[in-house]
Amino acid sequence: MLMAFTLATGCQGGSEDDSEGQVSGDVTNLTGEIVGGGSTSTKNIMEATGEEFTAINPDVIFEYNSTGSSDGVKGADEGTYAIGTASRQIKEEEKASNLTEKVFAFDGIAVIVHPDNDIQDITIEQIAKVYKGEIVNWSELGGEDAPIVVVSREDGSGTRGAFEEIIDFEEALTADATIGEGNGNVQSTVAGNANSIGYVSFTYIDSTVKALTVEGIEATTENVLNESYKVSRPFVMVYHEENLNDATKAYIEFLMSSEGQKIVESEGGIPVK
After folding, report:
1. How many domains does the chain fold into?
2. Which of 56, 229, 238, 262 could pair covalently with 223 via S-S, beta carbons 3.0-4.6 A apart?
3. What does this protein do, in the record's words (predicted)?
4. What band does 161 get if pLDDT is binned at 50, 70 and 90?
């Protein structure tokens, strides 16, 4: 699905602080068009930062096409996009294009169960077997003798795509899975069924569900950043330097600045700094 937007909102005053890599205000007198595309999972972050950037620089037009990670990398290489995004690591075959890679956020996915479930920890292999329907009873994981109710996300969900890719069971989801539309729906479904298991972004962890440790590692922002928690992924932008105009260079600087990273966090991402 192609999703694009064009932003050109009002101007805000400010200043540029080179020590922090921040770009603010209209002191740069930027003009031109920024065209990006790629991951659907990074869409909200790209839209929000693009909106703020064009509010600061009203003569800049920002467009983001939400067409998928692979298309983002390909588009950046071919020049369709000045900036491509991927909500995963860049593949070895994609690295042959010698694109510049920059991680601008991280995303953590928590594996959740009902608070009354005695299970505390689960391995990547066990998660895959549960979601493929090869483990169907909690007793197989050291829990009570009760059927496992698998809760997943809808087709096209960025969180589902990342989860399946990380756990490595793409196109093998058990036919018995309950499908939840959105993180909130998965959370409430797991909270309402003592035998269920699901997955949500970290921001949906609360007292109504329990986040399992994965191979002994807690689902925390710190553990995502130190790369010990395995059910996580980077949000990566890729580009060829020669395809960047001044406005695009300034936008990248803005996204990586403390101001841009605050927007990343407000949109549910984990800032890189």
Report:
1. 2
2. 229
3. Involved in the system for phosphate transport across the cytoplasmic membrane. Part of the ABC transporter complex PstSACB involved in phosphate import.
4. confident
